[in-house]
Q: What sequence folds into this?
């Protein structure tokens, strides 16, 4: 093969043709294919495009369908190479969409951008709505419709605090007292009481157990025991539902055993930090068995009024009134009133003065319907 010298005619045209052939060979593959990336977002969306700009905060990609899109780095779950054909056959003049169809409504884009800047929508929601707008109007994207990358690059707001578990509280109070008299008549009376309260979220459970035992001049004058369990559930700020169960006996009043149980609803008429007044109503099944072998059982309505008042750092008062009329005979009823006044010697030590009055139209033969109890005790709160 003879290589023409530079002085010969035809040397330069041959060199030009060789260089042109090399360039065409290098450019032809890239004319049909370009390196693109496939992005998997944390919300499950998939986006494909060529990377235009990449910073530590955002990645700007572009493709032939939606133009440029800015993706926050924090929202990218995974990326991988993806080759897509970028060359498209030229559209004929008859297939071109109308000019009005290729223009994106600038007003809607401005409103969408303003909503994102104001924090009303997230970055991903902004991206979705913008993609829908571009997809509906065509592929032409006016320069004014491009979004400032600095806006989309702002980091997402930090996640809110994790929901707190329900508040759990357990506290109680133990009271003990005695009434002693040594004179013409000797009297020795002892009383005790245990209160336990457990609170978890909207649920409150209160256990109340008490007893009184004693002699007067060697004769039994008191031997009673009472226990109750009440559960309240707050379904609104002031309203709640409850269930009450109580049982006990009173040997002096010839009650071998009694039982009551029933649900109801309640409402806090006044709910302050130091004063709460509530009302309750419901149904109550009661059963009494007397030592004479007789007894009664029936359904009663229950109407109650409750009050708790923290007067100051030294004095507090709680009071309860319950009225039980028999559902089919209102002349038969039971009434119970209780009031407790406390003087706090220390934050967990108190002197207590208690008044309890019971009235029952159905009693054993020879027993007064009214029973008044006055007690004093020392209380320890824990």
A:
């Amino acid at each position: 093969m003879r290589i023409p010298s530079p002085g010969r005619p035809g040397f330069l045209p041959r060199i030009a043709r060789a260089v042109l052939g090399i360039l065409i060979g290098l450019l032809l593959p890239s004319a049909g294919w370009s390196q693109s990336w496939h992005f998997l977002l944390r919300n499950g969306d998939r986006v494909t495009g060529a990377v235009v700009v990449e910073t530590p905060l955002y990645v700007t990609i572009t493709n032939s369908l939606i133009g440029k899109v800015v993706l926050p780095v924090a929202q990218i779950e995974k990326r991988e190479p993806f080759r897509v054909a970028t060359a498209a056959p030229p559209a004929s003049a008859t297939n071109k969409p109308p000019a009005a169809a290729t223009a994106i409504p600038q007003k809607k884009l401005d409103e969408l951008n303003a909503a994102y800047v104001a924090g009303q929508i997230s970055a991903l929601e902004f991206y979705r709505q913008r993609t829908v707008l571009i997809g509906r109007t065509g592929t032409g994207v006016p320069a004014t419709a491009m979004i400032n990358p600095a806006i989309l690059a702002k980091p997402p707001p930090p996640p809110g605090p994790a929901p707190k578990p329900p508040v759990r509280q357990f506290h109680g109070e133990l009271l003990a007292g005695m009434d002693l008299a040594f004179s013409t008549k000797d009297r020795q009376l002892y009383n005790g009481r245990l209160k336990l309260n457990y609170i978890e979220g909207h649920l409150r459970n209160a256990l109340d157990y008490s007893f009184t035992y004693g002699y007067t001049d060697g004769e039994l004058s008191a031997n009673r025991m009472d226990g109750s369990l009440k559960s309240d559930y707050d379904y609104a700020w002031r309203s709640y539902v409850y269930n009450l169960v109580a049982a006990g006996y009173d040997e002096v009043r010839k009650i071998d055993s009694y039982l009551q149980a029933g649900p109801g609803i309640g409402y806090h008429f006044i709910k302050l930090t130091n004063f709460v007044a509530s009302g309750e109503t419901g149904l109550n099944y009661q059963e009494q068995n007397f030592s004479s072998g007789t007894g009664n059982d029936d359904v009663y309505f229950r109407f109650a009024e409750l009050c708790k008042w923290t007067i100051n750092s030294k004095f507090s008062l709680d009071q309860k009134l319950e009225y039980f009329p028999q559902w089919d005979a209102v002349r038969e009823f039971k009434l119970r009133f209780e009031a407790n006044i406390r003087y706090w010697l220390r934050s967990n030590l108190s002197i207590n003065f208690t008044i309890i009055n019971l009235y029952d139209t159905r009693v054993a033969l020879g027993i007064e319907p009214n029973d008044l109890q006055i007690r004093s005790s020392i209380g320890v709160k824990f």
Q: What stands out?
A: The domain at 11-86+101-152 is CATH 2.30.30.100 (SH3 type barrels.).
